[in-house]
Design brief:
single chain, 310 residues, mainly alpha, Arc Repressor Mutant, subunit A, three-stranded antiparallel β-sheet, two-stranded antiparallel ribbon, 13 helices, 5% strand
């Protein structure tokens, strides 16, 4: 990573900090609103909000795994079926689901509660937040127009739940949250494109990633690896097979009871990270150096205040 990318990476980390700090403010409010409709947090957030973002298309296990190919298909299948059984989704074809009227009303109530919470936040003077929103929108707009690869599947679906711009009366904090979420989605697009040519699947990449992250420290045991990834819903044998496949490629080796990345494996995974950054930061050339520094300052100031409030 060169000096310019390091600078951009530091700015992006500040952006993620603001996104997390905003979430700490509105997530409890949205959870409360969801509970009033009878939903639990994972239901509305992971399934109903995604269903809204896919309209007029249906959602399915196949479509959900485009952005997150790391989950076991059965996890999506079970959760979609449960949401349908509760009346929030309806099955429209063999594998696809769409929001029912009940689902629409529930997810809109939760979104409105979150927006109302954010509209009350004043971490900075409004004119400074407007300036921040405009800079973030420039990045989103440039990402929408960026050359391929990467694609913009994740970003396009994130944009579908945008609640409007300044002219529409959308609160500035809501727009800042939306644009940061859009950029997060675009980074997912960039990451997916960065490892698409490796010829591996999502779980195999995650196994390599976990081992890659510990190369400079202690090797990872299988128990530690499975504990880190069991939330994905795969069985232990699934991950054992991924380790076998990675070892055949020469990317992972077993040392006693632990696993470590070979030089080739570390290099391959490092190249994925570098390619992700290259794709993600390419549209940031739309901002002049002075605008980048302003973006840094505004994100830092907003994050500091929100963390104090939190």
């Amino acid at each position: 990573m060169n000096d310019n990318q390091k600078n951009l990476s530091q700015i992006w980390e500040l952006g993620l900090g603001v996104l997390r700090a905003l979430g700490a403010q509105y997530n409890p409010v949205m959870e409360e609103a969801a509970a009033k409709t009878g939903m639990e947090m994972p239901t509305w957030y992971a399934w109903l909000l995604v269903a809204l973002a896919h309209e007029p298309e249906s959602i399915s296990t196949e479509r959900l795994r485009v952005r997150s190919p790391y989950m076991a298909p059965r996890v999506y299948e079970e959760r979609l079926a449960n949401a349908a059984a509760a009346g929030y989704l309806r099955c429209v074809d063999r594998d696809g689901y769409m929001l029912t009227l009940k689902g629409h009303q529930a997810v809109q109530a939760v979104l409105q509660a979150g927006d109302a919470c954010m509209s009350r936040l004043r971490p900075m003077p409004v004119d400074r937040m407007e300036e921040l929103a405009q800079l973030l929108w420039k990045l989103v707009d440039a990402s929408l127009e960026a050359a391929e690869p990467p694609g913009r599947w994740c970003l396009a679906h994130s944009r579908k739940i945008d609640r409007g711009n300044e002219a529409d009366g959308a609160p500035v904090t809501v727009r800042i949250d939306q644009y940061l979420s859009d950029l997060t989605a675009y980074r997912d697009d960039c990451h997916l494109a960065a490892w698409a040519m490796l010829g591996i699947d999502g779980p195999e990449l995650e196994v390599l990633t976990c081992i890659w992250r510990t190369r400079e420290s202690a090797p990872l045991t299988f128990a530690e690896l499975f504990d880190a990834l069991k939330r994905r819903g795969w069985e232990k044998d699934d991950y054992r097979q991924r380790l076998v496949d990675l070892a055949r490629r020469g990317w992972v080796e077993q040392v006693a009871e632990s696993y470590t990345a070979t030089t080739a494996g570390w290099t391959v995974r490092q190249e994925v990270e570098q390619k992700t950054d290259e794709y993600f930061y390419r549209p940031w050339a739309c901002l002049a150096p002075g605008e980048l520094e302003t973006l840094r300052d505004l994100l830092a100031a907003m994050g500091d205040v929100l963390m104090i409030k939190g």
